[in-house]
Design goal:
The chain is of the alpha/beta class. It contains eight helices and seven strands; from the N terminus they run E-H-E-H-E-H-E-H-E-H-E-H-H-H-E. The structure holds 1,4-dihydronicotinamide adenine dinucleotide.
């Protein structure tokens, strides 16, 4: 990680939520590989510290911060630590999210589960942006990427909360993009298809049959890799994407094309 650094990222700081696992960890590693200092923020302290260790092992700079994205004070404290450690904030990947514990048609969907999903997957993204944006503005601009889903593009039967939250992330992304485009902050979203992460392991039950069922929905005949989402996130934050504003980038092997 000490060579081939990208000038877009050298001396810059990236804040990544959900960085203890899956897509977030892959993005944290990808930002560090490009030369950015990384703040790995997650409720899982152990996984978080492992992500920071993986970055440092390769010569990168990272800190791990425990942060529950549903608690404004946690988010504020994590961002304070970001500035304390690295002096600034340039990029944020608001990616922390959970899957539904069970599937049920809308009228039978439990209110408590609705609240839990909306709280983390949608309100958490709002809270992060609310506290990240003033810091990014302080040093003249930057870029934010929020994690939506294929469920932000199409409806998922039996999954009203997750579908609503992920559609909401796209709406929120577009509104924030318009709010800050003139102030040099670009806000975009990624919409991953089925990605082979611990979340997907829980979703498929980790069985060959479960995996095959998911893969059958992917026109490319495989799941995506977390690194394939990370690459898009890093690109969306780069100067190469300077004209990309309020976009929801679908990276799903063709799953939602039909
Ligand atoms: P994962 O379960 O492997 O990682 C999610 C991370 O978020 C975990 O480390 C977890 O501790 C953290 N997290 C959960 N609640 C949190 C909270 N309140 N505050 C801070 N951190 C919290 O999941 P994966 O697959 O990496 O998912 C990342 C994002 O991508 C999620 O928003 C998910 O909805 C989305 N996504 C995933 C897809 C997939 O196929 N894996 C497909 C489409 C979207």
């Amino acid at each position: 990680m000490t060579t081939n650094k990208n000038e877009n990222y050298t001396g810059k700081v990236a804040f990544v939520t959900g960085a203890a696992s899956g897509i977030g960890r892959a993005a944290a590693l990808a930002f560090a590989r490009e030369g950015a200092s990384v703040v790995a923020a997650d409720v899982s302290e152990q996984g978080n510290q492992e992500t920071a260790r993986l970055i440092e092992d390769k010569g990168g700079r990272a800190i791990a911060v425990r942060c529950d994205v549903t608690h404004a004070e946690d988010v504020k404290a994590a961002l304070d630590k970001t500035v304390e450690a690295f002096g600034r904030l340039d990029f944020a990947f608001n990616n922390a999210g959970i899957e539904s514990r069970k599937s049920a048609p809308t009228a039978e969907y439990e209110e408590e589960e609705w609240n839990r999903i909306i709280d983390i997957n949608l309100r958490g993204v709002f809270l992060c942006m609310k506290h990240e944006i003033p810091l990014i503005l302080k040093q003249g601009g930057g870029a934010i990427v929020n994690t939506s889903s294929g469920a932000g593009i199409v409806g998922i039967k039996g999954s009203p909360a997750y579908t609503a939250a992920k559609h909401g992330v796209i709406g929120l992304t577009k509104a924030a993009a318009l709010d800050y485009a003139a102030q040099n902050i670009r806000v975009n979203a990624v919409c991953p298809g089925y990605i082979d992460t611990p979340m997907m392991g829980r979703f498929t039950g980790g069985t060959a049959e479960g995996r095959a069922k998911v893969i059958a929905e992917e026109p490319v005949g495989r799941m995506g890799k977390p690194e394939e989402i990370a690459a898009a996130v890093v690109w969306l934050c780069s100067d190469a994407a300077a004209f990309v504003v309020g976009h929801a980038m679908v990276i799903d092997g063709g799953q939602t094309v039909q």
